[in-house]
Design brief:
Trna Endonuclease, Chain: A, domain 1; 3-stranded antiparallel β-sheet; 8 strands; 216 residues; 2 domains; alpha/beta
Length: 216
């Protein structure tokens, strides 16, 4: 998914105002790129995520676009965005975005590997709280919201999944809805939290490399 093109300079300014009032949440700060406005520095990705809330009524998940996209978009709107002294490799972030997309493509055709009886309903389903990676139906006719995270899941990953489940339940009032969070690593806090949520499953994926000789 790319950044929605209906985000305007006005929406960005509303996002900056919210950041001034509430600050930047943990995990949303930037170490590489900064939007400069009226003597202050703001994290470009978080700015775009918030701006989308004012344009489209939901905070855009940071996993759905990369920093360089946010930088380019903000510059097109006339904002000054600079690279800071403390730099990190953009390739690492792009790798995880690519891995997440590859994981989605694979599971869309192989949902039985995740859980027996799962059938795909749709991909990238837009709801009021964002965009669901995969929406499936289980063998009992229940809807299953599947959220994918490349690498490590976080508290916000679980919160995001719960928001999607709530939105689907509101839309499909006659059906049961549950969720599956897929990641490579789960923090202990997330594991403990889901013990009280029988309608949420955690699934760990593993990546295994195999090598063979190439004959000339």
């Amino acid at each position: 998914m790319t950044i929605p093109r209906n985000i305007t300079r006005k929406h960005v300014l509303q996002a900056l105002k919210e950041i001034d009032e509430k600050g930047v949440p943990e995990g949303k700060a930037s170490r590489t790129w900064f939007l400069l406005y009226e003597g202050k520095r703001y994290p470009p990705k978080y700015v775009i995520s918030l701006a989308n809330k004012y344009a489209n009524r939901y905070e855009l998940p940071s996993s759905e676009f990369i920093t360089t996209e946010a930088v380019s978009y903000l510059r097109r709107l006339g904002f000054e965005v600079v690279k800071g002294a403390e730099e990190v490799e953009e390739e690492e972030e792009e790798f995880f975005i690519s891995l997440e997309r590859d994981l989605e493509n694979y599971l869309a055709s192989n949902l039985e590997m995740l859980e027996k009886g799962l059938k795909l309903v749709d991909r990238q389903v837009e709801v009021t709280t964002g965009r669901v990676d995969l929406l499936a139906e289980d063998s009992e006719g229940n809807l299953v919201v599947i959220e994918l995270k490349a690498g490590k899941a976080s508290d916000s990953s679980l919160t995001q999944l719960l928001a999607y489940i709530s939105a689907i339940r509101e839309r499909e009032r006659s059906r049961n809805v549950r969720g599956i969070l897929v990641a490579h690593v789960f923090p202990e806090k997330v594991i403990y939290a889901t013990r009280l949520m029988p309608y949420v499953k955690l699934k760990r994926y593993r990546v295994r490399f195999e090598f063979e000789d190439v004959k000339a």
